[in-house]
Design a protein that fits this description.
Elements (H helix, E strand, L loop, with lengths): L10 H56 L8 E2 L10 E7 L4 E4 L15 E5 L2 E8 L4 E8 H50 L18 H49 L3 H30 L5 E7 L1 H15 L5 E4 L7 E4 L1 H18 L6 E6 L2 E6 L6 H4 L19 H12 L2 E5 L9 E6 L8
Parallel strand pairs: 1-3, 8-10
Antiparallel strand pairs: 2-3, 2-6, 4-5, 5-6, 7-9, 10-11, 11-13, 12-13
Helix pairs in contact: 1-2, 3-4, 4-8, 5-6, 6-8
EC number: 2.7.13.3
Organism: Siculibacillus lacustris
Catalytic activity: ATP + protein L-histidine = ADP + protein N-phospho-L-histidine
Length: about 450
């Protein structure tokens, strides 16, 4: 038991989504690497700034301290205009007393007795430098959160353009994919157009190097298939055609024997021979029809109504079997509208369906023949056909539950015409709404010009 049908993605969609995902992943990876590199560079720059501030403040602080009187409290350096200090400093003596500090400094957060150099404490980056044999120490301070925020803003500046790049890249990839895949789509339509007797070589212009060999392989396959079908049709047609002349001659001789012989036993044998020859003649005619049904030319170059063709077929069947009282024929005044089905192919289809209904329906029962708007139906009375056998009736030499004579090729020929012309054939038994009967329904093609 097969699972649920999986959703298939086109090659263009796969390429588009794949490329956009690849660009997104690579962009994010590049932004991550850039963030790591940027963090290292920012650490170096701000550490250098801490060191530079300490080295600039140290001589100024020493000069300020020399001019101060003993016992003065720690002095705050007033800011020059309103601004936020990202780097603050504290100047202490050798005993750890605060002597000088910047306006935004927080001495209580800065440990005392720090050695010279860099260190990180409680989310702060510190740099300490001493002078005058350790009697004056300057510690510069920067919050590590400031560095994190700088790196975060820089990385976001790299990532935000990705939001605009993704839809633009997706549209560009789709447009480029359509232009690139156009020859492949044309090639696909060429393959889809094959069938209905059309096995001509494919038009493989503009295909990329990866697809061009496939076109050659498909052409080779079509050529082999065309040769096999032509050989089969030729054998069937030639065999049936070659049999017609000797069968007709043998049938004429058998009928002459029937007329000339006086012995009743001999005449019965001659009649049996004549009946066998007539069945053989009918079989050869069916084989000829099957060869045509499986050949090309099932679609007409110019659309035409099929009503006149059906009228001729019904007239020919009545002349041959004298069944006018059994046929109930309905043909619309406009002939059923124009159809692209070849008239000869429709004649073969209609003749076999009507003959099949006459032979295998109830004796002396009515056969309804209806040609409607792009639909052809033939129904007859008779016992219902089992569903399993109904499915096999379109096979060659397959017969239903009947004692009537026949070759078992009628519905096979009809199915071959429908298959070759792209028509839908429905066989229903019993007839819908009834307990018995047999209905054959063919959906006829509409005119291309009308569509």
């Amino acid at each position: 038991m097969s699972g649920p049908a999986q959703r298939r993605w086109s090659l263009g969609r796969r390429l588009g989504v794949g490329l956009v995902l690849a660009v997104t992943v690579l962009w994010l990876a590049a932004a991550t690497v850039a963030g790591l590199v940027l963090r290292r560079e920012i650490d170096q720059i701000f550490d250098s700034a801490l060191q530079e501030v300490a080295q600039r403040v140290l001589p100024l602080a020493y000069s300020e301290l020399l001019s101060r009187e003993a016992g003065d409290a720690a002095q705050h350096m007033a800011p020059i205009g309103p601004h936020r200090e990202f780097i603050t400093y504290v100047v202490r003596d050798g005993e750890g007393r605060d002597l000088l500090q910047s306006s935004d400094a927080e001495p209580h957060r800065i440990p005392k007795g720090l050695d010279d150099g860099f260190r990180s404490v409680d989310g702060l980056r510190l740099y300490t430098e001493s002078a005058v044999r350790g009697t004056v120490r300057v510690t510069t301070v920067e919050a590590l959160a400031h560095r994190d925020a700088a790196v975060r803003r820089a990385v976001l500046a790299l990532v935000w353009p990705l939001a605009a790049l993704v839809p633009v890249a997706l549209i560009a990839v789709v447009l480029l994919g359509r232009a690139t895949l156009r020859p492949i789509l044309v090639f696909r339509r060429e393959i889809e157009a094959r069938g209905r007797g059309n096995l001509s070589p494919l038009a493989a212009r503009g295909l990329p190097d990866e697809i061009a060999p496939i076109a050659g392989a498909v052409d080779a396959l079509l050529d082999r298939l065309r040769g096999a079908l032509e050989a089969e049709r030729s054998f069937t047609a030639n065999s049936a055609h070659e049999l017609r002349t000797p069968i007709a001659a043998a049938l004429a001789q058998a009928q002459r024997l029937i007329a000339e012989m006086t012995d009743e036993t001999g005449r019965e044998r001659a009649r049996a021979v004549a009946a066998s020859l007539r069945r053989l003649s009918g079989l050869s005619e069916k084989l000829l029809q099957l060869a045509k049904a499986e050949g090309g030319g099932l679609i007409a170059e110019k659309a035409a109504p099929l009503g006149p063709v059906l009228a001729l077929v019904v007239e020919e069947i009545d002349r041959r079997f004298d069944v006018a009282e059994r046929l109930d024929v309905a043909i619309p005044p406009d002939g059923g509208g124009p159809s692209d089905l070849d008239p000869d192919a429709f004649a073969v289809l209609a003749r076999n369906l009507i003959e099949n209904a006459l032979k295998h329906g109830a004796r002396d029962g009515k056969v309804a023949v209806r040609l409607g708007d792009h639909r052809f139906e033939v129904e007859n009375d008779g016992p219902a056909v089992a569903p399993d056998r109904l499915e096999r009736l379109t096979r060659r030499f397959e017969r239903g539950p009947t004692t009537a004579e026949g070759s078992g090729l009628g519905l096979a020929i009809v199915a071959a015409v429908c298959r070759g012309a792209g028509l839908r054939l429905d066989l229903l038994s019993p007839i819908p709404g009834r307990a018995e009967g047999f209905l054959a329904r063919v959906e006829l093609p509409r005119s291309r010009s009308a569509a």
